[in-house]
Design a protein that fits this description.
Number of strands: 7
Low-confidence stretches: none
Number of domains: 1
Number of helices: 6
Largest sheet: 7 strands, mixed
CATH topology: Aminopeptidase
GO molecular function: acyltransferase activity, transferring groups other than amino-acyl groups
Shape: globular
Strand order of the largest sheet: 1-2-3-4-5-7-6
Structural class: alpha+beta
Organism: Candidatus Francisella endociliophora
Mean pLDDT: 91
CATH architecture: 3-Layer(aba) Sandwich
Protein name: N-acetyltransferase domain-containing protein
InterPro entries: Acyl_CoA_acyltransferase, GNAT_dom
Length: 196
């Protein structure tokens, strides 16, 4: 498998693959995101222009099997109050590199791809001058966890990330309901932090 780091207009060349995998994986538990092409294209417009933004693409021959995004936290807009928990805890937002989503095709999971992506992102963060990393995860509904769901918390802890239950934001997105319908719904997300 090939791991490729993309930036700027290089991202645009693979944007359809990135969006397709993002929509596909985020439809799954725990996010249940009902994404659409129009929103996704708009989301990536500013991302492509940002000098700190990166997309890691993992390819098996010509097939894109995993995608991961990252950007300076100061430029990340996950929700309306993305930076607020950091400011409240006295952190300098400018020192953090934010790991956005990591999406792996179901047929390629549990093969060590995540760890390789995290290592590449950490190296990229250091090369850009950041000394702190962060990402956010949804606060899961423990009543609806599928039997085959893999909880990555143990992996993140093994890589030196600490879950900050005291650093939380609320985000809303079109969420697939139990009856198959979609409605805009707010969910809480916790931040995880790693300092070099």
């Amino acid at each position: 498998m090939d791991f490729v780091i993309l930036k700027g207009l290089e991202i645009d060349k693979f944007l359809n693959d990135v969006i397709d995998l993002r929509i596909k994986v985020f439809r799954e538990y725990p996010y249940l995101y009902d994404g659409n092409l129009e929103y996704e294209r708009e989301y990536f417009k500013d991302f492509i222009k940002d000098s700190t933004a990166r997309v890691i693409l993992v390819k098996d021959a010509d097939k894109v099997v995993a995608v991961a995004t990252s950007i300076a936290l100061s430029n990340a807009h996950l929700c309306d109050d993305t930076h607020k928990p950091f400011v409240e805890k006295g952190y300098d937002v400018e020192r953090f590199y934010y790991y956005g989503e990591i999406m792996i095709d179901q047929d390629y999971r549990n093969q060590g791809i995540s760890k390789q992506i995290y290592q590449l992102r950490e190296k990229e963060a250091k090369s850009l001058g950041f000394d702190k990393l962060c990402f956010a995860t949804i606060i899961k509904d423990s009543d609806n966890i599928p039997a085959d769901y893999f909880d990555p918390n143990k992996m993140w802890k093994s890589m030196g990330f600490v879950e900050r239950l005291d650093m939380r934001v609320e985000c809303s997105w079109p969420k697939i309901q139990a009856d198959g319908s979609t409605k805009e719904q707010t969910s809480g997300l916790n931040f995880w932090i790693k300092e070099f």
